[in-house]
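Z., the sequence and structure:
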Amino acid sequence: MTESSLRRTPSAPAVVGYARAAANQSPVPQIGALIRTGVAEESIYIERANGHKTAWPERDLLLPQLRSGDTITITRLDRLFYSVQNLIVVGTDLRNRGIRIHVVEQRIDSNTLEGRDFFGMMSVFASLHHEFVRAATNDGLAAARARGKTRGRRPLLTPEQAEEAQQLYDSGASIPKIAQTFKTGRSIIYRYITPKPAN
C-alpha cells in the first residue's frame, strides 16, 4: 500500500490497520479482527518480522504517512511496538501528532479518557527513562574518569547533537527528518528524544 491509497479527506481521515506476524505465523487472524472493527482490507499493512527486530519496513512506511485525525488500529500493543520504551516514545509521538491509536484486544483507545490517561502515563515514564539514562551515563563517565579511563565506544550522538535533536523534535520536526539530519537511523533518534506530554 502506498500513501496515495490512504483514504483521507477533510471529512473522513484515514483509518488504517497494521498486522505483524513472524515468518512462520499467519497474519490472517489479525487481519480478520481488524476488518471486524471497520478497517478496510486494502487499508491494512502486513509486516513479516519477529518481535525482537527493530527494523520493521512496513511500520516505518506507515507511521510517517499518518496525519492528525487519522486512526491506526492494531490487535495488541506488541504488534506495533517492539519494547516498552518503544511504546512510550513512539506511542507518545503518535498521540502528540493527533493520531488515534486503537488496540482491539486490550481495549485501549487513545480517544477515550482512559486511553488518554494511559498514554499520559507513558509520557511521564518516557521523561523518567530519559533522566535515568542520563544519570547512568554520567555516573559511568565519572567512574571511568576516576579509574583514568577516558576512551571507549563513542556515543551515537554527541551531547550537543542530542540536545539539538530534542530541540528539533520540540519545534515540530518529525523523527524521520531528524534522523536524516544526523545521518542515522530512526531507532537511534528515539533513544535520545523525550516526547512532549500528550494533551
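Strands lie at 15-21, 44-48, 71-74, 100-103, 108-109. The chain has a mean pLDDT of 81.

Let me know what you think.
H.
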